[in-house]
């Protein structure tokens, strides 16, 4: 199989599947090793990056997906009147950040970090397909564990969770101090 034929096969696979497809599955389908397949896909990604193209291939945690370029969503909206941009409130964004950095995590653990109930925020994130149930913790009550989805990676333009920004330790200490001060102020008011 030549490169052009392999590119056509990969394009057909990604288009037909709609969701992301693991590199190993693509390699097996085109009878190539993963290193060769990755090189072919990366060449295709460069080709799709041209400004006159409406689609792109994105990598999501070792898998690849054919997607519309986000800069062209307005044209899709004109036709479909559907793809609506997700707006995340500060509370939902804060909850999502905790889940992204601490996953797998239970609602109780999120609430301990935030200091308030998180049911609404977690439910909203599940509804937006940014967070999903990963299973249950082997502990009394068997609480649900939550983690991020491929849609989370896609939405924030990340290839994997390793691409999440690293939190500055000094800034982290400042955040902890602010949180402890807020808790103390709440305790003072209650007493």
Poorly predicted runs: none
> How many β-strands, per DSSP?
5
Integer-rounded radius of gyration: 21 Å
Q: How many helix segments? A: 9
As a percent range, the share of strand residues is 5-15%
Overall average residue pLDDT: 86
Distance, first to last CA: 76 Å
Largest sheet data: 3 strands, antiparallel
Write down the secondary-structure element order. HEHHEEHHHHEEHH
The structural class is: alpha+beta
Task: Classify the helix fraction into a percent range.
Answer: 40-55%
Order of strands across the main sheet: 1-3-2
Sum up the overall morphology in one term.
elongated
What's the short version?
By secondary structure, this protein is of the alpha+beta class. It has nine helices and five strands.
What does it look like?
By secondary structure, this protein is an alpha+beta fold. The chain is built from nine helices and five strands; from the N terminus they run αβααββααααββαα. The protein has helices at residues 3-17, 23-29, 34-48, 73-80, 90-102, 107-114, 119-127, 150-155, 169-190; strands at residues 21-22, 55-60, 63-68, 131-136, 144-148. It has a three-stranded antiparallel sheet with strand order 1-3-2. Strands 4-5 form a two-stranded antiparallel ribbon. Strand 4 (131-136) and strand 5 form a beta hairpin. Helix 1 (3-17) crosses helix 3, helix 2 (23-29) crosses helix 3 and helix 5 packs across helix 7 (119-127). The longest helix is centred in the C-terminal third of the chain and has 22 residues, at 169-190. The model has no long low-confidence stretch (mean pLDDT 86).
């Amino acid at each position: 199989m030549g490169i052009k034929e392999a590119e056509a096969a990969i394009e057909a696979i990604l288009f037909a599947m709609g969701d992301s497809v693991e590199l190993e599955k693509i390699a097996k389908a085109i009878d190539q090793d993963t290193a060769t397949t990755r090189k072919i896909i990366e060449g295709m990604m460069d080709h799709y990056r041209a400004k006159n193209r409406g689609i792109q291939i994105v990598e999501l945690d070792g898998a690849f997906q054919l997607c519309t370029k986000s800069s062209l969503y307005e044209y899709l909206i004109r036709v479909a009147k559907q793809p609506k941009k997700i707006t995340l409130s500060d509370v939902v964004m804060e909850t999502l950040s905790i889940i992204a950095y601490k996953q797998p995590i239970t609602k109780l653990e999120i609430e301990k970090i935030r200091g308030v109930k998180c049911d609404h925020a977690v439910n909203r994130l599940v509804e937006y397909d940014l967070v999903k149930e990963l299973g249950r913790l082997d502990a009394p009550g068997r609480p649900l564990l939550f983690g991020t989805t491929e849609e989370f990676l896609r939405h924030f333009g990340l290839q994997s969770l390793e691409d999440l920004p690293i939190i500055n330790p000094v800034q982290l200490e400042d955040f902890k101090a602010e949180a402890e001060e807020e808790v103390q102020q709440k305790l003072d008011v209650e007493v």
